[in-house]
Protein 1
Amino acid sequence: MLTVHAAPLVLPVGAAGVPGGAVAVDGDRVAAVGPYDEVLAAHPSARVRQWPGVLTPGLVQRDGLPLLTRCYHPDPREADELGERPLTGAEFDRLAGGMDEPRRAGSVRRGLQRMLRHGTTHVAGVLGEPAVRTAAGRAGLTVLPSAGAAAGEPSLDPFAGGRTLAASVYGPLLAGGRADLAVFDVRDEAELRAAGGTACVATVLGGRLVYRRR
């Protein structure tokens, strides 16, 4: 089904922002990017999704490899014991020694789900471990060559380290391109960079709505 995603501001990257903009999606491809009235007039039968804030291309998670292989993402049922944030460094090492494969696979799946909640559609890194590679494939994320992870602890926020929007996306929103989108409840790019990926309210992966904040 053809869908029009509309937002107060569309930032295609590589072109001027579009106030009151929209992106038409047909299957897994972008059909059009432009002002809402023009996009809807060209696709009058489309389903319309109205979003708050800013719509951008999907983001690249450059810390993908360490987040999936050197972090433990606690199950919500473990929150009282382990908290909710990813465990890294010595905390991860303490858990890793006694972790069986099902528990480790669960952590990988939760890590991928949390990436989607931060607007991530692409993961950078050589995902050599079969379980990690399979989970990423099932989630639908595009895997890219390593692009240089941020220094320090890995972060779920693709804007970590002060990255700009242009440096945080895989490519611009273009008609004919793959429909990987993210929507953030902010007013503009400056507010987006300040808030980071936690402001994400929706992620569209290959035309599929895979995350929506409720």
Note: The radius of gyration is 18 Å.
Protein 2
Amino acid sequence: MLTIHTAALLLPGGGRPPVPGGAVAVRDTVVAALGPYEELAAAHPGARVRRWPGLLAPGLVQYDAVRLLTEWYFPDPREAGTLGTEPLTGAALDGLGPDSAWRPGSVRRGLHRMLGLGTTHLAGRFDDATLRGPVARSGLTVLPPARTAAGAPCLDPFAHGRDLAAAAHGPLTEGARADFAAFDAPDEPALLAEGAGRCVGTVLGGRLVYRRR
């Protein structure tokens, strides 16, 4: 089945101009078409339609993935009363005991947090078995390691002054794998100002893998 995702603005990337009232048509795992919603809807009258607030943009790359998954602990929701809901780092990890006891669950939850920020690609080398399995099952695309910014790692792919061109995995292209996200922001400047936490939906290989409730 073909699904059309539409929002008030489409940012296709690759130097192409924004498309007001734009849409991305997805068939199976790939982008079938891009353009104004009216044109795509007319060409595919039987398509399922998903309407998103804000804008659609290419999925983002998490360059700090290895450090985040190995240096941070992502609490289980059931631990919120004692550990809170935000990731633990540094000395706070000491009280958790051997990392073999808590690392696997933390990695899975960390990957889910990344999906909730519009992440579709991870840069790094995931040689450790604790990381390799969950990353492979997540469906996220792994890219070669890249130089990361100095300082502490950050979950938001827009951190360290990255704009959409620097944070995105690449432009949305017909025939390419359908990896993109919806953000509840009116335009790119607002998105950069507010951060990837404005993500309301992430599509990975054509599948809706995250949707803010």
Note: The CA atoms of residues 7 and 52 lie 5 Å apart.
Protein 3
Amino acid sequence: MTTRSHTADVAIVGGGPAGRALATRCVARNLSVILVDPHPARVWTATYAAWRDELPTWLPDAAISSSIDHPSAWAERQTNLDRTYCVLNTSILQSILSTGSTQVIATKGDHLTADTVKCADGTRVRAEVVVDARGTTLTPRTAQQTAFGVVLDHAAAEPALDGNAAWFMDWRRDNGTAENASPSFLYAVPLDSNRMLLEETCLVGRPPLALGELKRRLHIRLRNRGVTVPEDSPVERVRFAVESPPGRRGDPFRFGARGGLMHPGTGYSVATALNEADVVALAIARGDDPQRALWPRSARGVAALRQVGLSALLALEASDVETFFATFFALPVEQQRAYLSERRDATATAKVMTSLFAASPWRVRRTLMGAPFSASRSK
């Protein structure tokens, strides 16, 4: 095998949204970038969404496929959320993040260090900074989110929406489950002006609900609401870990979901990666430590609190999950935003968790009190 060598300011392993976003912003800082990915031309098919106020200013409006000013949630009662929610146009997002002068090497990065990537085909890449952006990994011990969805035209999907523009979460049990069964919710959003995604979602589980079970629940729910699903309807299958793999001494800098940017209580990471790409690119261009730039003490504090939140979700009795979210959606929108989107204000996150605890019934409080101990044991 002939060894080929390449050098750059930055080498990024992983060509998903996080890796591509960082590559794009590094190029904007006049850094030379090599992107290593075994399938760089693979078309992204996942549905990516975000709160509108989370998206960076450099992302053009064309990347937004649909916007919902007041998405609805159902947890014991209906709540209209006072925050704009967006579904991204996946193909345009991929196009935006795939332009520029990034050099792409279509191979697998096998061994990564802080400044070297050894590839499966013998290629060796040296860089001032190596970035591991390969996403999370599935193991039996990692908490995971799973979902099964169908894509219908708006008219066909309308009976599932009860007159609402979208369901951010609908925890009603018209999906054929008993009160003590592991819960799942309906996520229903417009993909564009013609198509709706209706998806039965297991927010987080260890282990999570199987895709076959989610498919069964979705079809029962839609049938109960008078929705007919044609046999040839496109489907979406989702399964990913909401926890990043543990780091080891000598690992390169990690970014995106692999680097802990996924919110473990929601499974959202793309908007955070888009925003933090600028922070990391600027640090690299200045010669600063990107790890310190991405993870100041306040961000580490938020991450620790979110891990406690994940432990609470995993520990809740099935019958209490809907009550927990009813309490959360009753909080002021500023507190909802702080917990869902703010990753550098540990004080604000702690205040939200305190408010949530104080407003919860005693049976839920007992579970929440044990969450810090569960979080420490899971490490």
Note: The mean pLDDT is 95.
Protein 4
Amino acid sequence: MPAGRNSECENCAWQRSFDRRARIHVETFDNAGTRQRFDEFCQWLKHEMGAHKAALRLKHYVPFFSFLDSHPVGLPSYAFLLEHFSAEGLRRMQTPMLWLNTRYGVTADEQLRKEHSEKRRIQEMIGSTPAGVGRDALLGYWAYLRTRQANGGTSISSVRLSLRAAKNVMASASQLFDTLPSQKTVTAYLTQTPGQRAAAQGFIGFLNRTHGLSLKTELSARAVARAKNQKLEAKLYGLYSTGGEGEAFERTWIKTALMLLHKVKSVNKKTLNYEAMTMQDVAGFNVVLNAKAYWVPGPTSAPSFASESARRPPDDANE
């Protein structure tokens, strides 16, 4: 026996400590059903973890049973627990959830968890929107989307993505959300983010129907191309301004230069094959991509191809 333990070994000491802590905690519950389940959980926990670890961890699980004690609904369902603890909270309560599954067959519902997470993100999105005409428009659109979802016309994930696009459209008109979009702000937003056109189209149509507007989502290919070039120019000039170096920086530089100067639509910078090459006294890179060779200038001198607009930050803050 270790010194100071008399006739009690360490394992017995932890067994006694765990049982004492369990008796103290169980007295905090008012309902007999909660006390019974907590006692069952304690015996299971001690068997699963051992008395030492179980004694140290037991207090972390008491809030779970305190909630059950204040909501005596019998055997709690996963949906009931999810509504209170949220998906994140239940992740921190994995051990009691494992016990519920082992002892009573209460299993996690992945689809329900996903829906709950999407609803929480939507609530946070709406909650972070300032009060005003813009927020009212978002709330109206949300109600419309919920009706479509209830009728099976869309999913909760699509609802969230549609609302995100709608909020971006409103923010492009005013960061204070105190005015509705105009044709000018809609065109500017979609020109800067052409990939959002499909997602934003539903909200713009909703605004036209409910607010008597005549907003259009058609864009000229020339305007989209010009906006894309301006973004690439601004990004390239931004890279030049940082004075970065190293392989990761070079690959980002080359990818951006290929898209701007050679109109390459898609570049995987991780698989680029390149080597340094000077052309007409300009240091640059010879790049092989999809069996084709390209040359791009390097970041050692100011990019002469960058227009004055490239020296300003891009309009799209999400870039």
Note: The two ends are 66 Å apart (CA to CA).
